[in-house]
Design brief:
The structure is a homodimer.
Chain A: E1 9-16, H1 21-31, E2 38-44, H2 50-66, E3 72-76, H3 80-87, E4 92-95, H4 96-108, H5 125-140, E5 155-159, H6 165-176, E6 180-184, H7 187-192, H8 197-200, E7 206-210, H9 213-223, H10 232-248, E8 254-255, H11 261-275
Parallel strand pairs in A: 1-2, 1-3, 3-4, 5-6, 5-7, 7-8
């Protein structure tokens, strides 16, 4: 293989008969292994008719010609009629289903149904409703708004103000149907030198977070420029005090400075499974039998 | 291929050196094509050491023996050392990266870097911050809490109370960094027979939703049992009135009754791209060059 010079631009299509989430997640993940290339991404979900496919083939062919390079196409098109037409386009074609389904079918000794929209559609109202319930719970218990019922949470994320508790909580609720409360540790807690009793009753549900002073300062400055609250010294002071509280309660905090919401959520889910505190995560795409 | 009888139970592992999101999304999507089989899913993210892999291989082998069927393993392990060890387990092994990377490398005439954690990690603070900004905007403009600045939204979702506007808005913000406001259409709007002027100023950003009466009734009953608000007659009445408003403003509503959050979001993103109202969606996993 020869290395590409001068970071060329390459166009990538994510095409699906349904939402395109699978094609895009896989394609993005694979292409992240080629940081030396400058990709342009084009999403085309709900391509479910011969007419739409033909239009799309024209679009792909035009780009292939104008860029003098065949676009990459990641597609999840289980229905053969549309799939077949799309493959005729002037592109590098990666059919996500084709590549695996035969082998999986053989391994399972079962025949796939070849239907589209099975993985991210509204498959079951009960599963869906649990997810919405989790989201409502999470919104209600964001930022310690309600403490009385915090014991009903699956997870309680604690940490300093503006250290990313809310996005992680919402992601846990939306993605996994997890009831995620969060509690900002503030001056009051430092003064009392303890966490509220209602939190300690759910000690095993607490996930502590830590953050680097410079990053916290940067985030708070955006929120309240030139304030005492955002000052680097304040951040450093709070970080020291919160660590003292964590030590007191033997809490081992996750570092949110260098981790994405997805990474934090994956860690929490892993720990919940390990401790047995979560019997079951509801995946948005899970089909109830 | 012979069909499996008596819906046997099959165990599936999603294994990754990082979050496991790619392995799980792809695996779940593929397995949705086998609704006749009862799968048990086991997530094992952050498997990044020889020690962890060896422990996991023991676990897989034990299940293979006790269930008398080799578990399915979907793995994204770009680093060869760990990948190699895992493949020795007694399982049906699907390596997501292996299957595609060689072909993609050839097509692009480029060499992949074979690093883990590139796709769902914290890759760029700027991209990450935009996503958090979008989330903060969305939380602030949820349920018409703030109308004054609603014009700064990328998207304004309108519809009846409890018709799924909030989850879709939050999903758009978290997943795509889209600033999504939402506005519940209520009795006030029906009486005035118009939408607020501040909404109409952003007419091209409005996404209207509709829902079936029975489903709306069911959701509201859970929220406020036996109330006037939740009564089927009330729901029917509001649905008729909201449709009149949509007709007046030539709004073509999306039906939320039979669609998942992911499907609604994908539709909105598609329309935003079509109308040119969204220059760029920020994907959580997108790497800024």
């Amino acid at each position: 293989m020869t290395e590409v010079k001068n970071t060329p631009k390459r166009t990538v299509f994510f095409i699906s008969e349904s939402t395109g989430i699978t094609a895009e997640t896989l394609g993005m993940s694979l292409l992240s292994q080629f940081p030396q290339i400058d990709f342009t991404y084009i999403q085309r979900p709900f391509v479910d008719s011969v007419e739409k496919v033909n239009k799309l083939v024209g679009e792909i062919n035009q780009i292939a010609q104008s860029e003098n390079f065949r676009p990459l196409v990641f597609a999840t098109m289980p229905e053969e009629k549309v799939n077949h037409l799309l493959q005729l386009a002037n592109c590098h074609y990666y059919e996500v289903f084709d590549s695996f389904l035969d082998k999986i079918g053989n391994d399972l000794k079962a025949t796939p149904v070849f239907e589209s929209g099975l993985s991210h559609g509204l498959v079951n109202e009960k599963v869906y409703d649990s997810r919405i319930d989790a989201l409502n719970f999470t919104l209600k218990h964001d930022d310690a708004m309600v403490l009385k019922t915090i014991g009903e949470a699956d997870v309680i994320i604690v940490g300093l103000s503006r250290s990313g508790k809310t996005p992680t909580s919402l992601y846990l609720a939306l993605k996994f149907g997890i009831r995620a409360a969060n509690y900002p540790i503030t001056e009051d807690d430092f003064e009392r030198n303890e966490l509220p009793a209602v939190l300690l009753e759910s000690r095993d549900k607490i996930f502590a977070t830590k953050i680097k002073a410079k990053r916290l300062h940067q985030i708070r400055e955006k929120r309240m420029p030139n304030s005492q609250y955002a000052a680097l010294e304040t951040c450093k002071d709070e970080i020291k005090k919160v660590q003292d509280l964590y030590t007191k309660y033997h809490l081992n905090p996750m570092d949110v400075t260098s981790q994405s919401i997805e990474e934090l959520a994956a860690q929490i889910v892993r720990k919940l499974h390990k401790t047995g505190n979560l019997k079951k995560t509801l995946h948005s795409w899970e089909r109830k039998k």
